[in-house]
Structure formats: structure tokens, C-alpha cells
Amino acid sequence: MMLRLCLALLALVLAGPALAARERGRFVEIERVAAAGLPDQHVSIWLPPGYDGSKRRYPVLYMHDGQNLFDPANAAFGKVWAVDKAMLAVMASGTVEPHIIVGVWSPGSDRYRQYLPKDIYLAASPGLRAQMDQFAGGPIVSDLYLEWLAGPLKQRIDSSYRTKPGPRHTAIAGSSMGGLMSCYAFLNRPDIYGRAACVSTHWPAVDPAKLAASGDPELIALWDQWFAAKLGPVKGRRLWLDHGTATLDAFYAPYQQAVDARLSALPWQRGRDWQSKVYAGAEHEENAWAARLPEIFGWMLRK
Fold it and tell me: Which is nearest to 146 in space by CA: 138, 158, 154, 134?
């Protein structure tokens, strides 16, 4: 499967500007979307090739940090996931059916408090919660963000576009704090999200350099208990987890290993229901995530 994905992605890269607009898909920008208790949200929507000329319905992938997904001109660091190209590649390989992609931009300085799972914040000790408060700079609002994602935003997308609205056809993905938010959505709203990719998940939640190199025992226990209590039965769901080994990702292994151990103890089958990968040498940045995105899509969204 990986060979087919690589060949398909190479073909897209070589085609470059020669790809007609109708073969690249179409973008829709909604710059101000009201969300109760949150700043107005910016949403970028990608409609796959063939959408406008067909009557078919499409699965939907929701992603965080939408400004970093498609256009380097919008990206925080001038680098993107190239999500549309990864989707085109897996579509061309025949492993994944076309998806509508909905990218929700992060709210600048409010990103941490919008993406930190409120479950974990409330369960944290006063000392750990104080560290989280320093990063947040305000109340934690991930519960409000999830309520908007799973409610008004999804309703708007389902009513405006030809979607397959069920959980087996609704995925959510993100990296770093967006990885935490994706897990939060997957665990708390299995009625909505049947697929999730938690990429380079920022399990330390706070500054990892201030925690034990072997992982903070309290946080490891919190993540373990969270998955044990919230994951629930498989019911056809799929969960992707990963991290690199360089820069910020170098801190993640102890936490990911604890989560993997918990998943292994549950009636979830690795390779079928969940996957956890380590990418040696991969850094905590968009180019690294773009490089493995076809593999992520090929597993998480496979037919």
C-alpha cells in the first residue's frame, strides 16, 4: 500500500502546475464563523475534484490549525501539511475515497486554551493546573470548542455540502496541541467522530523541559486513566497515534508508550482499530507531518 501511495504522490508532484484546477479540487473560505463562548472562527474548506459535477456524497475530515494545511502564505511558519496533495495521492492510489476537508484555523494566542482537553485540566493537581494556567492566559474553553465543532459547525457543513454524516465517515485530525484536541473529540464524541489522527501529540501539555525526562508521573497517569475511562468499544472506529524523535517530539515517548500500553490492554486490536508509529529523526514541524500524511490517511481513512 505504501508503494502505491508514494507513486501516486510522486505523480502529483511531477504534474505540478499542469494540474487543471478541476483536478486539484476547490477551496471555500469562511473568514468569520460565530462560535458560542469563543472568538469568531476562520474555516477553510477543500472540495475534492469532481464534487461540483456529481451528486455523490462525501466523507468529511475536520482538522485543526487550518491556516497551516494548504497555503504557505497563510501558514504560521511558511510551511504546510499539503493536505490536499496528500488526499489526492491516496485517492489516486485507490485506497481512500474522496473526502471533503474542513480546516479550522487556530485562534492565535488562545490556541492553547482552546485545544487543551478540559477533562485533563479539571483532573490535574493544583500544581499542574497552575502550570497549565500560565500557558492558557485565560479559561480553558476546549469543551466549548468541541461543542461547536460537533454541533453548529458540523450541522453547517452537512447542510451546505453533500456529506456522509455518520461517525464512520467523519474524521478529525491535528498535531501537537491539535493532537490532544483530536483525541479529546474522539474520546468524548464517538457519536460524531469515528476516525481520528493524533499526530505528534503534545502529551506533556506544559513545558516538557520542566518535567522529568522519563515523563511526568502525574500526566502519564492522567492520560492512562483518560483512555481507560473514555475510549469505549471499538464499533468500527480507528485511532492513529504517532510522534517523531527530534526537537519537541523527543519528549513524547514515555507518554505515548503509556497510552499504547493502555490501548493494548483494551479490546482494541493494533493495526486494525488503532495504530501507533514512531518516526526516527522526524521533527515537530509541518514538513515532517506532510511527509507521513499519505500513510496516515491511507490507514485511518481506508475504504
Answer: 154
Whose cell is 496516515? That residue is 296
The pTM for the full model equals 0.92
DSSP annotation of 151 reads: I
Cell output for 37: 463562548
Q: Which residue has the cell 473568514?
A: 31
One-character DSSP codes across 225-282? HHHHHH----TT-EEEEEEESSGGGGG-HHHHHHHHHHHHHTT--BTTTEEEEEETT-
Predicted pLDDT at 234:
98
Strand ranges (E), the chain: 26-33, 41-47, 60-63, 100-104, 170-175, 195-199, 238-244, 274-279
Q: How far is CA 108 from the centre of its chain?
A: 18
Give pLDDT, residue 18. Answer: 43
Compute the distance between CA of residue 238 and CA of residue 221 in angstroms, rounded to an integer.
23
Q: What are phi and psi of 33, to 5 degrees?
A: -120, 120
Which set of grid coordinates corresponds to residue 195?
476516525
Burial of 152 (0-12, 13-18, 19+ CB in 10 A): middle
DSSP-derived 3-state class of residue 8: helix
Measured CA to CA, the distance from residue 140 to residue 115 in angstroms comes to: 8
Give the residues of the chain that fall short of pLDDT 50.
18
pLDDT for position 213 = 87
Q: What is the pLDDT of residue 14?
A: 56
Tens of pLDDT, residue by residue over 141-198, are 999 999 999 999 999 999 999 999 999 999 999 999 999 999 999 999 999 999 999 9
Domains with residue ranges and CATH for the chain? 2-13+23-300 (3.40.50.1820)
In whole angstroms, give the CA distance from residue 25 to residue 90: 14
